[in-house]
Specification:
By secondary structure, the protein is mostly helical. The chain has one domain (24-169). Helix content is 74%, strand content 7%. Strands 1-2-3 form a three-stranded mixed β-sheet.
């Protein structure tokens, strides 16, 4: 009887070990930056950003030309101007300088916002494709070499240990 129990226990352990070995994990990786560089939407996105940047640069250039013209006029006539007119022109030049500087700052922010706005749908499309490919090909985890974190994981195979860690820390 002891032999039979020993054999059954051994058989169960071997079977359990084989089950654990049979559960293999399939890992993959991708460089999403490289993928993005090869996506056809990227060319359209770059063209739109360049056009927007050109528009902003043209506006800044017009403002700078206006400033230069007024500055040159001021320099050429400064000696003949009354104190009140000179002071008014100096204030105007100072105001234009501030206006140009504010425009540059806002233009930089707007350009960054426009880039994010145009890039987001392309990145979402790439991420969806990565997740679809991972699911279709049975990957458990896919690592993104460009961003660092895991971009996909199979929730059916991977165990979320957050509840266990919360319990360990006494967090409800």
């Amino acid at each position: 009887m002891k032999k039979l129990i020993g054999i059954l226990a051994f058989t169960m352990l071997v079977g359990l070990g084989q089950e654990l070995v049979a559960q293999t994990f399939k890992f993959g990786h991708i460089n999403s930056d490289e993928l993005f560089m090869q996506m056809p939407e990227r060319d359209t996105l770059i063209a739109q950003l360049e056009a927007y940047q050109t528009e902003l640069s043209n506006m800044e250039e017009l403002m700078q030309v206006e400033f230069n013209n007024k500055y040159n006029d001021y320099i050429n006539t400064a000696e003949t101007l009354t104190d009140l007119v000179r002071q008014t022109k100096e204030e105007e030049l100072q105001s234009l300088t501030e206006k140009i500087n504010n425009f540059r700052q806002r233009a930089q922010q707007d350009l960054q916002q426009k880039q994010a706005e145009l890039t987001q749908p392309v990145l979402q499309k790439a991420e969806k494709a990565i997740k679809d490919v991972a699911k279709e090909n049975g990957f458990t985890y896919v690592f993104d070499l460009a961003r660092g974190p895991i971009i996909y994981f199979d929730e059916a195979v991977s165990i979320d240990i957050l509840p266990l860690v919360k319990t360990k820390l006494g967090i409800e």
